[in-house]
Amino acid sequence: AEKFLQMNKSFYKNVIFQFSFLSIVVFLSRLPFLWAGFGAEEDSWLLAITAKNMALSGNYEMSRAPGHPLQEYLYAFLFNNGLNPFYTNLISAISSVITTVFFALSVRQLGLKHYLFAGFAFAFTPIVFISSTYTIDYMLAMAFVMGSFYFITKPAASPPSKGGQGDWLLSPPPLKERGPGGAVAVSPPPLKERGPGGAVAVSPPPLKERGPGGAVAVSPPLPEERGLGGEVAAGIFLGLAIGFRLTSIAMLIPFCIWLFPPYQGITVGWKHRSRGIGLFASATLLVGLLTYLPVLKTYGLSFFHYSDQFPYPNLPKVFYKLTLGTFGTIGLITILFWKVKILFAKFRMKEKMITSKIPAKLFWASVSVIVLYLISYLRLPQKSAYLIPAVPFIILMFGYYLSARSFKIFCVLLSMSSFLFSINLTDSLRGSTHSALSVKFRVAGQEIFIDPLTGPVFSDYTKRLNKITYTEEVFQKVKQEQKKIVLICGWWYNELLVRGWNVTQNPNVVPVFYIDKPSIEKYASKGYIIYYLPEQNLYNDQYSQMNYTDSVARPYM
To answer: Are 432 and 462 a contacting pair, CB within 8 Å?
Structure first.
């Protein structure tokens, strides 16, 4: 019995089993949400329209500035083979699995003991979970960003061992683990130290220190211990990430910080390491440029801007998307609680933030990621998902500063945040379903609910279903319209166009995204009546920078 228990324990510690379990759980968690159309965002439906246009014309077309060429070509290919929301959503779900695995592998080789907890915390952070279930570019880009991070942090290759399984996942692992049958999968071990729980810590990395959280603070290998293949692979991955989402290029800065020569010997190997930085940056920029050639050929340099159709949002909305929209209620409280606790402890003990618990370069690289994407979000605070690249590095830093027990609790609470205490709009057309226990209140003129029984993931899913239902109602009414009308659709425009695929259009109805005053007057002179869908009178004025729509248009439904 004791031998069976020992074998069973070693099985659960097997790296392949661990990462297979992580992958399966993450994938299955996404599966129930993949059937609800292309997504709640109008950009998701615009990607489908762009795919159709590209497939039929054979020419590149930008879905929205500054272009997402690899994603747009991928969906155009799918259109030629039967574009279906389930398949494009499935691509996002699979990408989230790949992203999670690369992140957990990176955390493992950085020496963090509870890398699986970190992986689950990332995968189940609300904005990551939601973005994994619909048609959008965020997780496709992140899969390659985290792949780049994995190769950036990967230690030097060592000869393959014969006794263990899972060595291909990481070579050499920061923590040596016992494989099935008691075989030890490390060769050759230059230094062994027995750690908590019987784990065997292996070096080379030149410096390892046990942190309060069971984390092993690892300084990167000295330049002469490591080849440059990792930098080239990392550059290729980051270049492909740029092809899916241009803002991925910001990762050049933090990743180059990581590649900078070690502080404990800054002059040692500078020539070698500068070559590594040069190769990484060159590979990134070259591959990124190649992916953007269709965009440059079609639009020239005019593509290089971002979509800013409306005025800067009000501060409550900016704050909501930055905090609750990203981490959920439980996640935000969890982050704030432990952040305050860490800062208080540092202040009381008069300690610096950068200690031996975390490599200085990892600290500055992580901080730079968070700052860069925070600036990017605040420049155009339209979507919480703009902050996704910062999420893994926030989790990583907490892994170094918290004790092992506290970090596991942190990860569990962050994961729970996807399923409890959602906060969303009560609007029956584009809001979310909520339970009888929800509490309602008003913020910035909109009715909001907080519901302890539904989480952000369920709220997003029901929002998608509500929008599909309303779109169908509008579509059916438009089909039977007898009057000559112009219909201002706003954020319903793309979804209505997709719903009308392969259906004869009613010639009496002219659907428009938004419309300016001269165009309204032109249609009115031809006998058209101007209508708008809910709230689109306000946004039409904002978009066209006028105060005119209400004087000439009326609600349609």
So the answer is: yes
Cα gap 461→31, rounded to integer Å: 12
Q: Which residue has the tokens 């780049």?
A: 148
Evaluate the omega torsion of the peptide bond into residue 555 and state whether it is cis, within 30 degrees of 0: no
CA–CA separation, 463 vs 318, rounded Å? Answer: 20
Which pLDDT does position 430 carry in this prediction?
85
- The encoded tokens of residue 13 equal 């510690």
> What pLDDT score does 2 carry?
62
C-beta of residue 206 within 8 angstroms of C-beta of residue 222:
yes
For residue 429, the model assigns a pLDDT of 85
**What DSSP character marks residue 178?**
B
CA 418 to the chain's CA centroid: 14
Q: What letters, b where the CB count within 10 A reaches 16 and e where it falls short, cover 74-111?
A: bbbebbeeebebeebbbbbbbbbbbbbbbbbbbbbbbb
Cα–Cα dist 68/60, whole Å: 11
Paired tokens of 536: 């689109």
- What's the pLDDT at 165? 37
Contact between 359 and 220 (Cβ < 8 Å): yes
On the CB side of 514, CA atoms within 13 Å amount to: 20
3-state secondary structure of 554: strand
Task: Give every residue of the chain whose pLDDT is below 50, as ranges.
Answer: 157-214, 216-226, 263-268
Cβ burial 362-384 (10 Å sphere, 16+ → b, else e):
bbebbbbbbebbeebbeeebbbb
Task: Indicate the burial class of 555 (C-beta count within 10 angstroms; 0-12, 13-18, 19 or more).
Answer: exposed
Question: Could you give the 3-state DSSP secondary structure of residue 509?
Answer: strand
> Distance of CA 164 to CAs 105, 175, 184, 192, 199, Å?
17, 13, 6, 17, 15
Full-model pTM: 0.85
Q: Which two tokens stand for residue 300?
A: 């020239």
**What are the strands, taking DSSP E only, across 378-520?**
422-425, 439-443, 446-451, 485-488, 509-512
Output the pLDDT for position 270.
Answer: 55
Sequence-distant (6+) residues with CB within 8 A of 404 are 113, 114, 212, 213, 214, 215
Q: How far apart are CA 69 and CA 297, in angstroms?
A: 12
Cα–Cα distance measured from residue 270 to residue 4, given in angstroms and rounded to the nearest whole number: 52
Residue 416, amino acid:
M
> What would you measure as the largest C-alpha separation in the chain, in angstroms?
89
The pLDDT value recorded for residue 174 is 42
Q: CB-based contacts of 56: which residues, under 8 Å, 6+ apart?
A: none
Contact 445, 16 (CB under 8 A): no
Distance between CA atoms of residues 208 and 43, nearest Å:
46
Which residues are bridge partners to 447 per DSSP? 442
Task: Give strand pairing partners of 512.
Answer: 488
